């Protein structure tokens, strides 16, 4: 199919991501069919879209006519998967991060969608090839990884797996440009892609520090907030759900390296059912609203240079593997996280031998092979 022959987009799953992707597609003039498993979930997604579109109109960002067109002609909803995809040119699944659920959905979509349609997954961590093989059109399967909240975050990682054709990649990139998003190509099917993959080892470092009694979650968050970050990493994990972190770590441990397994601190929270904001208790107590972190509890053992070092090392591994270009790392981090500075830009202040020695020290201290400096870091190639 040609690049610009996408006119109908089916979004499967109307949750946090699905409703957001549907909204930006509607705003760019695509005909959108939004699908979810029941009326309750579907209506919730529609309400969120309507609310957000209403605000855009109030602010004068869209006109009353545009809103009318979206509500009248462009937008359809259904709870039936066949109905949702039967006329679609592009299908984007945004259902929960459960591999068997997504595989089953890929089979159902493949059976009901027109032969020319492209099928994309918005998975945050999983390899695209986990799903392409479930279809009879593996060349038309790719990753389109949007960031939350979709309306605000500019980045979409466009991910190629071994099966994905270049035509499908071009169609994905073209679609992102129509949405006025910043697309970054990910050329290899690496778990976590760019942003999540680069951030994964810093999570592992923080869990190792807590498990070793070097710092508490509150001390980590207080120290990170000292540099002006609005939320610390443990509060963010509470906010998104500790189960999300747990499943991501488990998947990386199975597919990348055993060192990515969740630390004891995470396992204990999962066992106790303390998943963060949604259960009222996680690393912090959310029962009375946002937890008050004691910002005086900073801890010198929490060295932000260590967090940057393990992320740069992971980024260098991605470049070595040919998953992306060096320049795309910072484009992805800035547009996908809202951080004003890119990772590689921050790392340029570090001397390559110091960076390599720092990584060796962390690897030794926490017994993690994944922190060992990769070859290009030793050679100072990206700094
Ligand atoms: N939330 C984030 O920050 C974020 C960011 C990027 C990517 N993602 C990824 O996007 C995907 C969706 O995440 P989310 O946060 O929107 O989840 P969510 O739980 O907010 O929404 C998922 C929706 O899918 C629906 N659903 C469940 N099974 C379904 C099925 N068989 N068919 C149709 N709909 C079904 C649910 O009813 C729910 O409305 C996941 O793969 C996640 O990893 C999430």
Written overview of the protein:
The protein is α/β, with parallel strands linked by helices and 383 residues long. It has a domain at 8-186: Rossmann fold (3-Layer(aba) Sandwich), CATH 3.40.50.720. Helices cover 50% and strands 10% of the residues. It is built from 17 helices and eight strands. Strands 3-2-1-4-5-6-7-8 form an eight-stranded mixed sheet, with helices on both faces. The longest helix has 20 residues, at 39-58. The two termini are 41 Å apart. It binds nicotinamide-adenine-dinucleotide.
Span of the ends, CA to CA: 41 Å
**Number of helical stretches of at least 4 residues:** 17
Strand order of the largest sheet: 3-2-1-4-5-6-7-8
Q: Under CATH, the topology of the domain at 8-186 is which?
A: Rossmann fold
- Mean pLDDT over all positions: 95
Gyration radius from CA atoms, angstroms: 21 Å
Structural class: alpha/beta
Helices and strands, in order, run as EHEHHEHEHEHEEHEHHHHHHHHHH
- Which regions are unreliable across 5 or more consecutive residues at pLDDT < 50? none
Largest sheet: 8 strands, mixed
Text of the CATH class of the domain at 8-186? Alpha Beta
Shape: globular
CATH architecture of the domain at 8-186: 3-Layer(aba) Sandwich
Query: CATH superfamily membership of the domain at 8-186, which one?
Result: NAD(P)-binding Rossmann-like Domain
Which percent band covers the strand fraction? 5-15%
**Can you list the ligands bound to this structure?**
nicotinamide-adenine-dinucleotide
Helix content: 40-55%
* Count of strand segments: 8
């Amino acid at each position: 199919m040609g690049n610009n022959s996408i006119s109908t987009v089916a979004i499967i799953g109307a949750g946090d991501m699905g409703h957001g992707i549907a909204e930006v597609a509607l705003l760019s003039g695509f005909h959108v069919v939004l699908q979810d498993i029941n009326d309750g979930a579907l209506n919730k997604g529609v309400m969120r879209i309507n609310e957000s579109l209403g605000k855009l109109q109030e602010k004068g960002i869209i006109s009353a006519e545009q809103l009318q067109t979206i509500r009248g002609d462009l937008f359809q909803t259904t709870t039936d998967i066949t109905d949702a995809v039967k006329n679609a040119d592009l299908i984007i699944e945004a259902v929960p991060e459960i591999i068997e659920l997504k595989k089953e959905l890929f089979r159902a979509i493949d059976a009901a969608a027109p032969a020319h349609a492209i099928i994309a997954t918005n998975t945050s961590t999983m390899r695209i090839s986990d799903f392409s093989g479930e279809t009879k059109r593996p060349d038309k399967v790719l990753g389109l990884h949007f960031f939350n909240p979709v309306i605000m975050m500019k980045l979409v990682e466009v991910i190629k797996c071994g099966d994905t054709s270049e035509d499908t990649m071009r169609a994905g990139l073209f679609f992102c440009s129509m949405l006025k998003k910043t697309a970054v190509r990910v050329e290899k099917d690496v778990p976590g892609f760019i942003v999540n993959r680069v951030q994964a080892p810093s999570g592992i470092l923080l869990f190792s520090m807590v498990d070793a009694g070097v710092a508490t979650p509150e001390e980590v968050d207080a120290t990170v907030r000292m540099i002006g970050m609005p939320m610390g990493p443990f509060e963010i994990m509470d906010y998104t759900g500790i189960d999300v972190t747990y499943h991501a770590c488990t998947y990386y441990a199975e597919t990348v390296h055993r060192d990515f397994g969740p630390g004891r601190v995470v396992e204990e929270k999962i066992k106790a059912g303390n998943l963060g904001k949604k259960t009222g208790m996680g690393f912090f107590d959310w029962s009375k609203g946002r937890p008050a972190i004691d910002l005086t509890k900073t801890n010198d053992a929490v060295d932000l240079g260590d967090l940057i070092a393990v992320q740069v090392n992971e980024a260098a591994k991605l470049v070595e593997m040919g998953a992306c270009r060096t320049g795309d790392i910072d484009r992805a981090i800035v547009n996908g996280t809202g951080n004003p500075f890119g990772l590689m830009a921050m790392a340029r202040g570090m001397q390559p031998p110091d960076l390599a020695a720092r990584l060796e020290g962390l690897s030794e201290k926490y017994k993690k092979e994944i922190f060992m400096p990769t070859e290009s870091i030793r050679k100072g190639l990206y700094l």
